[in-house]
Amino acid sequence: MTQEQLIVNQRRSLLIYAERWGITKACQTFGVSRTTFYKLKKQLLATGSLLPRKRRKPRMPNESSLSKKKLLLGFIKEHPSWGPNRYVYEFKKQGVCISRSCVWNCLKRFDLNKRYKRLIYIETLKERQQPLTERNLRQLKYHFYKIKEGLWPGHIVALDTFYVGCLKGVGRIYQLSGIDICSRYGWAKLYVTKEQSSAIDFVENTIIPKFFTNGVELESVLTDNGSEFVNAKFTQLLTDYEINHHRIPKGKPLFNGYCERFQRTIHEEFYQKIFRKRFFNTIAELQAALDKYLVFYNFQRAHFGIIESGAIPIDVFKSRRSFLRQRFSNIVNLT
């Protein structure tokens, strides 16, 4: 998915949310001003498109010429393991004057500023149709958090319902849980029922705004076959936001193991401790304590399922690495 398609989907989600819940709530939830909202709506009515406006390419008088860039790519194809200093020397042999910083900026603009990236580049050239070597695959996974092949933030979000218990004066309490399979960033919200309205509210008011504010595309959700996830209204919600819906086989909770493990972590690290320390009279008090734990889980607690040495979920969730997505898509196709 290109950057323009991502922006269009985010803007469409904002307009759909405004139609459902009103402009004021939509702007507050998605973190945009009313002026921005009306500009987008006016653009849609006038042009029928939500694509970002094309801007004139800025004039860069000191930018390297096209001939120098082509010459640099030729050097990379022949000597991918060299550094900027050697490339500058080769330029001088060709009678071309260029500085080391200029060569470095060109390499960074091409996303070839690391040796292993240059090696991958020559392996993926059209004239050399062959799979990536095992060594470069290991390097690629190491530099990008060893994320599972074919997964990136927003690719799949696993959802599930967890029975918390019975709170005196309130009744039964259920927790709607969601976790991004790639980054392990998690969400949780408490409800007094496990009906379709709870699942719809959780997805539309808790998960989608988080993806919107971080510029990440929510592509699909994974659920079991519970009544809150298989009803027509929930399916229509996902259709409106263009989110794919995957269901696990009946009687196979292991297929939703990411969310099951997330709920077990909350149960062991939060509920078992908090219910021995204080009493809760309302669901709002318990939700506030849960939100405080989720801040610790997502922003401070290292997760060792992402990388062996540990990584913070928010760091992976907010990583905007188009290179990661493109390269891992290529890996999936080659393997």
Question: How would you portray this structure in words?
Answer:
By secondary structure, this protein is an alpha/beta fold. It has four domains: 3-47; 66-130; 131-150 and 319-335, no CATH class; 157-317, Nucleotidyltransferase, domain 5 (2-Layer Sandwich). 53% of the residues lie in helices and 10% in strands. The protein has a five-stranded mixed beta sheet, with helices on both faces. It starts with a helix and ends with a helix. Residues 141-150 and 321-335 have low confidence and may be disordered.
Per-chain topology:
Layout: H1 3-21, H2 23-30, H3 34-47, H4 66-78, H5 84-93, H6 100-109, H7 115-123, H8 134-143, E1 157-167, E2 171-180, E3 186-191, H9 196-213, E4 220-223, H10 227-230, H11 232-240, E5 244-247, H12 257-274, H13 283-299, H14 313-317, H15 322-334
Parallel strand pairs: 1-4, 4-5
Antiparallel strand pairs: 1-2, 2-3
